[in-house]
Amino acid sequence: MTTSPPRGFVFDIDGCLMKGARAIPGAPEAMAALRSRGLPVRYFTNDSSKTPAEMAGRLERGGIAAAPEEVLTSALVAAEYAARRFPGGRVLAIGGSPLRDALERHGLRLVQDGPADAVVVGRDLELSYRTLEAACRAIWGGAVFLATNLDRRVPVEDGFVPGTGAVVKAVAWATERSPAVMGKPSIWAGRAAVRSLGIPAREVAVVGDQLQQDVRMGKLAGTVTVLVLSGSSTRDDARRVPPRFRPDAVLPDVGGLTEWLDLGGVGQGGEERGDRHDERAVLVPSER
What we know:
alpha/beta; Rossmann fold; 2 domains; six-stranded parallel β-sheet; 15 strands; 34% helix; globular; disordered C terminus
């Protein structure tokens, strides 16, 4: 574990900074404080149904400063991977226009039926049985199965809505194939996020509310990891995961980040920093 505070941050959005159209209390102030210290930030969303510009606009309306070039999406990672593996290839996509546009910008040809080199499954708010059938037939015909993410659900203002994982599981169940996941928690997502900051992984902190997505991505990429309890995962969840995937720190929300940094960022050997009874910043023992 690094013994110095992180020099750059990668943030999850839903459940970490935002719930629906509203910022989580304390998030705008926390992000402004990080920027005032000259710390670069990136925003990573597994939502393939929005463009970086749309996600930046959503953050801005919530009071959080963001530029499109600071936003990474699972659609961008999937498009980059597919283009590298199948240059100019045929791709059948389940997803909205942001996913399809990303694929086309990387020189891939979109098809509605097989044969295809790859099937990319993202978030599709207008999914039809016809599209589901076409995707399965393409995979049965030999197409590689890619998923933007396996998110089971997405936090919104009044609870949760089904995530992309629900659609991915339907395709996987029918085809008896497991997808290669492009978004969080994949190594491809983690490397893309770290690369965009231009600093070593060990000097980057990944902050998010989901152990199986955000924290795992950071661990696989070799970064510091911070779990916030404002979304899906709980402190008990963090204690139950295998040691190698436990977060380096657990905070109630991103409002505790500046205090955590002031205490040194991460402790020696996973020990708590400061008052051991202070619930604002608790470090969970972890292995790296």
